[in-house]
Amino acid sequence: MKLLLIALLVLGNTQWITSYEAFQTEEFDSLDGWVIQNQFEATTDIITKCSGKNIIGGLKTFGTKSTATKLIKVPPHYKLKFNLQLWKIGEWENDVFSAYVDGVPWEMKWGFTEGGIRLCGGSESKNSDKVFDVEFEILHNSPTVTTVLATTAQGKADVQAWGFRQIKISFIPCPSDCGICHNDKVQECKYWNQEALSWFHVDTKLEGWKLENGKPKGFECSGIVIFGGYENIGAKALLSNTFTNIVPHSKVMVKFTFWKIDLWDNEEFYVKIDDKQVQKLAFQKTDGIDLCGAKQTNPGYGEKIVSIEIIQKHSSPTLTISFTTSLKNDPDEQSWGVRDFFLFAAQCTKFCDECVGTAENECTKCQPTHTLQDGKCINKNEWYILSKEFFTDDQFNKIDGWTFQDFDPAGPNPPITKCGDLGLVGGYQAFGKKATVQKVFKLPKHDFVRIKATVYKIDQWDGEELTMFVDNQEFWSQFLGWNDPGQSDICGNQNGSWKERIMTIDKIIAHSQSELTVDFKSTLQKTADEASWGFREFLLLYSPLKECIEVFSECNYKGQSSKICDNVESLKDAQIEFDIKSIKIPEGLKITGFKNPGFKGDRVEYETNQELIDRKSEIYKQMIDQYENNPTFWNKFSFAGGPTQLPRSVLHKLEKQFIQPNGKSILELSKYDHEYHQILDQAINDLQSLLDIPNQYKIIFCQGGASLLFEAIPMNLMKTQHSSISYTNTGYWSSKALEEAQKFCQNVNIATNIAQDEFGKRFIPELEQWNINKEDSYLHYCDNETVEGLEYQFIPKFSSVPIVTDMSSNFLTKPLDWSKLDLVYAHAQKNIGIAGSTLMIIKPELINNHQNIPYMWDFKEMFKKQSLISNLPIFPIYVNTLVFDWIRKQGTLDFWDQYCKKRSQQLYKIIDNSHGVYINQVKKEQRSRINITFTLKDEIETNKFIDLCKNNNIIEVKGHRAIGGCRICLYLPIPQIGIDKLSLIMEDFMN
Ligand code: PMP
């Protein structure tokens, strides 16, 4: 897409695009909207024939004072080119032909001797008729152009006449990021944001302006409708408007066309912005040509069009503009009018409230959610996702809580369509005239909201407005149709030449109510098959308010007061110097006080307001875990390789276990305690049912981590001391296992190595290419290579060779096929708990009767003693039981498998769509669902990304030292809100 836009931009610089073309064929019979004034009275035909060709005008038709006028609309551009064929007929005496473009004349003069033979049947003179191909260029950037063709010829049209044919107007477009421009430089125009538009349509009204001393009406002048004009606005008229809510900006541009009508005698027209005169134009008696107004033939009763552009330093969100004149007579003698009024603001950079210019580093004040650093706005708020909708590529199958009104009944219901390859809410033949969309959201306590969305304008809009409201206040709004940057034709009516515009909203507002209503509305006048709109990728984020506990020095919440918003080691740290006598505790929070600093000694707990406390304690506040996805309980998200985070509810339960007033603490249990055995049995039973483990397998808990099993497995499983064993070498951890096995066994066969394809992507070769010995005592592989982020999609089963699998990093993330597995092992600190417990699920017949295995490594001993070969650390196993319980409550292992796929896909999609900002080095089919690895351009970019994450409380995203880059580990307890937050940061970093 980017490439395409750049290509268009380059073409745009060199190519003229035709905007209007008429009267090209030899014969035509329509005027195509051209308005003709003062044609010679002798004839009624405007189109005549000359030398076999039709022309507009011609002999006996266009003579003195004849004019031809037309207004056309042109997409964003900065240069126009006019081509027309002009027919000069009869004898001209130094008369001038003029083409006025918004009042600016292009002129051509003919003397006596210019001309050729008779073409149109008029004079016999040998200098009579001539055909000229006229071509001229003009700098121009308003979305409309008024063209007036006229002459100064004084003779009657049977002697001196003119006509034209083959007219063409072409333009050079603005750079694709700009809706208005003065040249081809993107940097000089992309910041212009259209803020207002008036008098652009045919049905011209007051349109929100204030008019004193005049009639608020439109007037048609030679086919063109202006506001004001003849008999409406003249002496003493004051036309003004105040625009509010202008985006933060450093300057404004005002553009409009002014029409001077009838006889002005050195009188002036004034423009004021915020009470300061910014423009003064004087008009002479001789100015203009007669197009409309008073029916007077006296000289001076002419009309003049002036295209006005004013660029002015300005930064206030409110701007008042006024138009007045020094006229003295009634509007039937001298008058004026306006049309095509536009207000643009040179927008400050994103999240900047005040700026001195539009460059990246010219901000002087940021929004409250951002801090100013070297002229830039850096985000300081925490953002949490409340709602993320319509992000899938295809059509959306879930429309939660949105209501649609007045959408096209002939279109789909619900109104979901596609634009190009992507699904849209609304869109072509769905949302046109009157269609509205609404959703009401409920929010936790917060102080700001941020809304992002991608909005599509489809087909031909005509300066109408699309607006998003938040709680009935305008939140985002855009005029569409004539100052649209960056368009492409991807959906909608494929017959029209109208293109789509894709806009991204990303705005923050202060907001604290618990409910928020989002509405989309438009002023569109057309049905959804002519012009439409839609949206996708809707994201509502909020910045949660940290709730605080309030403490007071007197009972009944009186006296001095202070707030505790975080855990504090001592009251001194919270700057509380008084004894606490009463406490206000928001719902869901708890405060625990300790006698001694460092959370030690006697403790007291309160969960509700306390009117009177008769006790002196060191107090700190503690959060209670209510649910996993509550951001309040995740101060930081860690995507570490392991140990990783625990479910918050597990942490909360654990916290309660340490101090048991009536018994032993969990930390004090020994194998002689009943509870100790209960915990171990629970863990084994839970595991068996979670993983559906057949009865012939034994579940053993041991110590020493997966690394101990790297050594113990060859010791226990080799059939004889000289047997061969097979190992895969598909990543960092399988190679570690292989290395350990080699210390013990002379005969280690490498079944396969990791391979790389022509793009440098790592992959595991197909089973056919592996090298296995039928006599091998076993084949060892690592099902998920934690460091590389590569995961097996199959179990490498070879005839009767037993299969031994290290599942440390993807344990319990999917169901297992026990018909192919003989030994599965994993440590706990990734998916199921904390470091300290390691487990294996093994078929007992696999173990061979070696005599000389040291006791702590000996599987036979582990069996015999049912894991209790030494004092097995029961606390980590207790944590395992809590996590097992948590896993089971969330869903089956099929659910977890799908969930892991979906979560990892969310990040891989960002990586794949990042245009190389992030690169994953694993073949697509074998990418891990758990460990997502990627590299960035270089170390500087990598560190920048890591720092950005850190600043947003996302930690440990650095890749393993063996391969560098970054790694995101999505172990089971990692909450979705953390992944969503990381996704946002990855996208922000990309942009
Ligand atoms: N196997 C795999 C797949 C691993 O990811 C790791 C550690 N990250 C290990 C083994 C080593 O585990 P331990 O620290 O428990 O020895």
Automatic annotation (TrEMBL):
Pfam families documented for this protein: Aminotran_5
Signal peptide extent: 1-19
Annotated ranges, domain Aminotransferase class V: 639-981
Domain of life: Eukaryota
InterPro entries xref list: Aminotrans_V_dom (IPR000192), Furin_repeat (IPR006212), Pser_aminoTfrase (IPR022278)
Pathway(s) of this molecule: Amino-acid biosynthesis; L-serine biosynthesis; L-serine from 3-phospho-D-glycerate: step 2/3
Known EC number: 2.6.1.52
Assigned keywords, A-Z: Amino-acid biosynthesis, Aminotransferase, Pyridoxal phosphate, Serine biosynthesis, Signal, Transferase
Any GO MF annotation of the entry: O-phospho-L-serine:2-oxoglutarate aminotransferase activity
Cofactor requirement: pyridoxal 5'-phosphate
Keyword Hydrolase: no
Family label: Belongs to the class-V pyridoxal-phosphate-dependent aminotransferase family. SerC subfamily.
The protein, known as: phosphoserine transaminase
Species, as recorded: Paramecium pentaurelia
